[in-house]
Amino acid sequence: MATANSHRGIVDLPTELIRHICSFLCPVCVQGQRPWSCPECINQRPGCHEWFRGQLDMSRLSRTCKRLRNVVQPTVFLCYPDSGRWQVRRLLRLARTLMQRPDLAQHMRFLMFREPCEELEPWDRKFVHDSIIQLGLPAVPDHWNIDGDPEFRLLPLELVLAHTPDLEYLRVPLDYDWNLHLLSQLVKTRPPFLTKLKSLEVSHYFIAGDRFDVNMDAIDTIIRAAPNLDSLCLPSPNCGYGSATPMPSLRRLYFQDDCSISPEALTALLDAAPKLEVLALRWAAMADSYDDCADRRTTDAWDAVERRRDSLRELRLDIRSDTEQGDGERDSLKDFENFLSALFAPSIREVTFWQPDKEEMSSAMLRFAKVVAVGRYPNLKSVVIAPSEMSGWRELDEALNAEWGESKGELEEDFGKGNVRFELKWESPYWSACRLD
Q: Are the beta carbons of 150 and 209 closer than 8 angstroms?
């Protein structure tokens, strides 16, 4: 004979069991085992489309009854994705909910935003206007959303950030003249309010004919609000300052694509991160497409890296120059031998050399291998020579491979004496900040 307990449904289960069941609605992408298909899943970052679809299913489930609403809604608010249409309007709906339900705001961990260009309805503009006044800040102009003023372009996102104190991951777009009007005022009047933010990824919102850099002042504003930042991913920042905002907890610094950061700005950023362990830079500051590059040399980047030689564990440095090397540049390449043998931190774990020229670099590489062989770098595990993805070559040409092939045996032997794996790759390793963990 059936009992009442035999017909119990999901709503009658313990809270933790319901949440565990709901976790299967947001599975790891089925393609996640192939590293080129879903980097978000591999690195456990909130960017997987399978996860987004599961989140929609959980949202529907949370609306079926009061019990499931109370149990499932916190999981729904864990992540706000940047997919779909009308992103700014959706972001304002989120802001309204977070302000009305602080209990849900404390569950938000991941926030991604991509498309700030959207004109709002009058009632939405009024909501932003009134919300800023409620924060005790001066009112913004009535036209803030109409004429595309870069000072107010990210106001809806800033309003959300002001109400998500437990946020851990943020992806935000910036351009060279955009500012963070609301946050810049909050950091002046409040103690840091994004203390749990660990990862900040800034994307470049490019418009045809636009510049290729982003406003570092806006990035500094977020950094000041997030003193415990662990990972920072940037395009080319347009900074020319002598010092950077301190980042005492930063361990990973990634520069996206062809970064044209000046040597002075790079030095300032590295000085501001005393615990930096991982640096990835594809440096195009000497390329023809950028101004004021005539006096720059390869060693400018090396000199900046030297600032963190005692803390670095992993270095990925790809330097691009469209101009023929003059005598000064050739002389600077001679310093590469000293750079390898003397400037690398003893704690370095992995080194990748992108498209090194055999004629210029062979003696330096051989000397480096012999230094490794006698145990100078006890933590080093891997040395790789690979074609530069930035150069446009997907494979080493036969001549270059043959040149390095002549030294491959000797390099393998010497590196092997130091228990270091040496590789000469035929294809460029996939370069992306989300892979460098």
A: no
